[in-house]
C-alpha cells in the first residue's frame, strides 16, 4: 500500500509496527498505524531486519532523501506465515517508487467438492415404454424385499427409498448441454484440425474462416428451430415454450456475495456462521410463542377413508417438470407406477389420516434465499418471506374448532403446523 506519504518509523507502543522501520513517523504515518491497530493488521516492512537500501521505497526528486512510504499490510493472525519483506531498488519499473516484495509460507486448504446433484431425465418415463416397465418392476421388487410395515414414518421411508433407488438405477441422467447449444460435431472436428495447424499460418487462417462461417450457419439454424418450437408450444405446452425462450435468451440470475452481515454489522464469511445467522434472523421474525393445545384431540375421529379415486385425481392435477422437495420424489415417478403407485400412496395417506402422525420429510421445507439486487449482504435484502407462512396457527385452530371441522382433519392440520420444520440452503450447505 503506497501513496499515502505515510512514514511509520520504528517500534512504538503499537502492535502494528516493529523495530525495523525506517525514518521518523509523520502525521500520516500516525493515522496509518492507528488504522492498522483497529483492523488487526501489521506492517510487514518493519518486521524484518534489512540493510537501509532494502527498506526505502521512494526517492525524493533530486535524490535529496529516501523514505519508506510503501508498505505491505498483513493480518495479525498470519504473522507466522510472513517470512520476509524487502524493497528492490535495482528493479527497472519506470517509477520513482520501487517494488516491495514479500515471501509467505502458505498451506492451502484442501477444499472438498460437494457432490453434484444428478438430474434424471424423467421425460423418458413417458416416451420410453420399456424404461417405464423396467422402472415399475424394479419398484415392486424393492417393496417385496422390504416387507410390510405399520408405522406411517416407516411406510413413508419405504415408499421413498423404493422409488428413488429404482429411479436412480433405471432412469439415465439428463445430458449436459454444450456451452454453445448450436455447436455441432462437424464444427468440433474442424476446431481440432485448426488446433493441429497452428504452425501453418495459411491453413490456420483458412480453417478459422470456415469455422466462423459454419458457426454462423449453425447458430442461425438453431435459432430458427427454437422459434418454430416456441410458436408450436405456445398453443399446446406453455412449459416447453418458456423453456425454449430461456435457452435462447439465457437465464438471468442475481449473484450472491457469499457473505452476510451479522446482527452487530460485522461481515460473516464462514458458511456455518451464515447459516446460524439466517436461523437467528428467521426465528426473530416468525416465532410466535404458540402453545400446543390438546383440546382438538378430544374430538371424534370417526370419518370416511381416503379413496383411490381422490388420490388418482390429485396425482393427475400435479404438473410435471417441477423441482422436487427434500424427499427427491417427482410426480413423474409416481405416475409411471400407475395403479400400483396409487394403491401404495392411498394406503400411506390413510395411515397418516387415521393416526395423525406426519412423516418428518413431509413436514420439512428447505428454502433458498435469493438476493433482491447484486451485492446484497443484509438478510432483509433477500427474497424469502413469501416462503414462510405468516398466519398465526393458533388462530387457525381456534376458528377451525368453532366451525366444527371433523376431528381427523383438525388433528392432521394441527400436526402439520405444529411439527413442521424448515432449513436454509446456502451454497449447497443446509442448516440443521
Automatic annotation (TrEMBL):
The keyword Transferase applies. It comes from the Eukaryota. Residues 1-101 form the Endonuclease/exonuclease/phosphatase domain. GO terms for molecular function: RNA-directed DNA polymerase activity. InterPro entries: Endo/exonu/phosph_ase_sf (IPR036691), Endo/exonuclease/phosphatase (IPR005135). Residues 1-21 are annotated as: Disordered. PANTHER family: REVERSE TRANSCRIPTASES. This is RNA-directed DNA polymerase from mobile element jockey-like. It comes from Elysia marginata. The lineage of its organism: Eukaryota, Metazoa, Spiralia, Lophotrochozoa, Mollusca.
Amino acid at each position: 500500500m503506497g501513496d499515502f506519504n505515510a512514514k511509520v518509523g520504528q517500534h512504538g507502543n503499537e502492535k502494528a509496527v516493529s523495530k525495523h522501520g525506517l525514518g521518523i513517523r509523520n502525521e500520516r504515518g500516525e493515522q496509518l498505524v492507528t488504522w492498522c491497530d483497529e483492523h488487526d493488521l501489521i506492517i510487514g516492512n518493519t518486521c524484518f531486519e534489512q540493510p537501509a537500501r532494502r527498506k526505502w521505497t521512494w526517492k525524493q526528486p533530486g535524490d535529496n532523501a529516501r523514505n519508506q512510504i510503501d508498505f505491505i499490510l498483513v493480518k495479525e493472525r498470519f504473522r507466522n506465515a510472513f517470512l520476509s519483506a524487502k524493497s528492490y531498488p535495482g528493479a527497472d519499473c519506470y517509477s520513482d517508487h520501487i517494488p516491495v516484495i514479500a515471501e509467505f509460507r502458505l498451506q492451502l486448504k484442501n477444499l472438498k467438492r460437494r457432490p453434484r446433484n444428478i438430474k434424471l431425465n424423467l421425460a423418458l418415463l413417458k416416451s420410453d415404454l420399456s424404461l417405464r416397465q423396467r422402472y415399475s418392476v424394479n419398484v415392486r421388487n424393492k417393496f417385496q424385499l422390504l416387507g410390510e410395515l405399520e408405522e406411517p414414518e416407516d411406510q413413508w421411508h419405504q415408499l421413498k427409498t423404493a422409488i428413488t433407488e429404482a429411479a436412480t438405477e433405471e432412469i439415465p441422467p439428463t445430458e449436459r448441454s454444450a456451452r454453445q447449444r448450436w455447436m455441432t460435431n462437424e464444427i468440433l472436428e474442424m476446431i481440432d484440425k485448426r488446433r493441429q495447424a497452428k504452425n501453418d499460418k495459411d491453413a490456420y487462417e483458412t480453417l478459422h474462416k470456415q469455422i466462423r462461417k459454419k458457426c454462423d450457419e449453425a447458430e442461425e439454424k438453431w435459432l430458427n428451430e427454437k422459434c418454430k418450437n416456441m410458436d408450436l408450444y405456445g398453443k399446446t405446452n406453455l412449459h416447453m415454450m418458456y423453456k425454449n425462450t430461456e435457452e435462447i435468451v439465457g437465464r438471468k440470475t442475481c449473484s450472491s456475495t457469499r457473505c452476510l452481515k451479522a446482527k452487530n454489522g460485522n461481515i460473516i464469511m464462514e458458511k456455518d456462521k451464515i447459516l446460524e445467522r439466517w436461523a437467528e434472523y428467521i426465528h426473530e421474525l416468525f416465532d410466535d410463542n404458540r402453545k400446543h393445545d390438546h383440546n382438538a384431540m378430544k374430538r371424534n375421529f370417526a370419518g370416511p377413508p381416503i379413496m383411490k379415486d381422490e388420490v388418482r385425481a390429485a396425482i393427475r392435477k400435479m404438473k410435471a417438470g417441477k423441482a422436487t422437495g427434500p424427499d427427491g420424489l417427482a410426480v413423474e415417478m409416481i405416475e409411471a407406477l400407475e395403479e400400483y403407485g396409487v394403491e401404495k400412496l392411498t394406503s400411506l395417506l390413510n395411515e397418516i389420516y387415521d393416526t395423525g402422525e406426519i412423516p418428518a420429510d413431509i413436514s420439512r421445507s428447505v428454502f433458498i434465499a435469493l438476493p433482491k439486487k447484486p451485492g446484497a449482504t443484509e438478510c432483509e435484502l433477500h427474497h424469502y418471506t413469501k416462503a414462510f407462512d405468516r398466519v398465526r396457527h393458533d388462530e387457525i385452530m381456534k376458528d377451525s374448532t368453532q366451525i366444527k371441522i371433523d376431528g381427523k382433519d383438525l388433528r392432521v392440520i394441527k400436526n402439520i403446523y405444529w411439527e413442521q420444520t424448515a432449513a436454509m440452503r446456502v451454497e449447497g450447505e443446509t442448516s440443521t
